[in-house]
Amino acid sequence: MGTIEGRDDLWAGRSVDEQISAKSQKRNRCFTSLSYNSDGSLILAGGRSKFICIYNVDQAVLLKRFEVSRNLSYDAMLQFLRSDGMSGDAGAMATLDTAEFQHGEEIPLPGVAKGEFSKRRTHPQISVNAVQFSPSGQSWCAATPEGLLIYSINSDGTFDPIHLDSDITPQALRTALSEGSPLKALLIAIKLNSLGYVQEALERTPAEDIPFVVGSLPSHYVPPLLNFLVELVTSTTHLQFYVLWASELLNRHGAAVKTHTSTLNGILSAISAQSKSLSSLCDQNTYFMDVILTVGQFSKAPLSEEMEVF
Which of 42, 45, 193, 40 is nearest to 131 (CA)? Predict the structure, then answer.
């Protein structure tokens, strides 16, 4: 049992209609939505502030603070109000109705005898209405005036020394294949982002080298490679070869692709469609073979004495 003091992490902003400073307003700031991750080690907190905080439960410390918006049209975005927006004793100019009148009279409305006194402008205040961790703990979302914000762990920015090589060309791909470096050739093909080059790199890799290549492949290259496999499986005649690639990728890098549901559904749908097509073709071929064998048996049978041969 313990407590986490998070009031100072909220960063209170000053609203245009508040008469006291933002520092004094901290007592009115609070978290209104909390969410734990699946194992209870992290807590996500959001509330009357433009920040969302993630805390470590065991150590009771702030791990990361996310700013949900920098849109100055929202209220309470600034800690100090600008002096040119103040009007002396009247307070902030934003709180005054500066609508222009015609001939010194208020703008009339139907059915209103004494004029119209409603506010013409509103200032929505920045806040975080709700936060929620995903079941996997790899992403979380927040409901804010800016809309639904979704954050996730992204490993696409992992440092890869091959990115420093300026010779990413088709000639370099074929040179790597001729030198017996299928992994380097595959990485070059993926960076070229061409289906033809990826197909060339895959099909020129020996089947016995597939486990080694897949095991050495950086995890952030797996989703784009699976996307290429979806296109290749639907049109190739080397179905078993590409199924071997897909099987190795899913077995070795399952954690890297479990969040890419569209990619997983795509590869499963492509393999299932090919399986149904082959099953129908095999059944049809089986029936044809049965007919041929049956006709062959009748042709070998001796003719009866009653049957006349013309």
Answer: 45
Residue 102, SS3 per DSSP:
strand
CB contact at 8 A, 272 and 234: no
Mean pLDDT along residues 87-96:
56
List b or e across 102-112, with b for residues whose CB sees 16 or more CB atoms inside 10 angstroms: eeeeeeeeeee
Cβ–Cβ under 8 Å, residues 94 and 16:
yes
How is residue 246 written in tokens? 């897909």
pLDDT at res. 161: 46
Q: Order of strands, edge to edge, in the sheet holding 147-152? A: 130-133, 139-144, 147-152
Tokens of 55: 């805390």
Residue 86 pairs with which residues in a beta bridge? 92
**φ, ψ for residue 104 (rounded to 5)?**
75, 10
pTM over 0.90: no
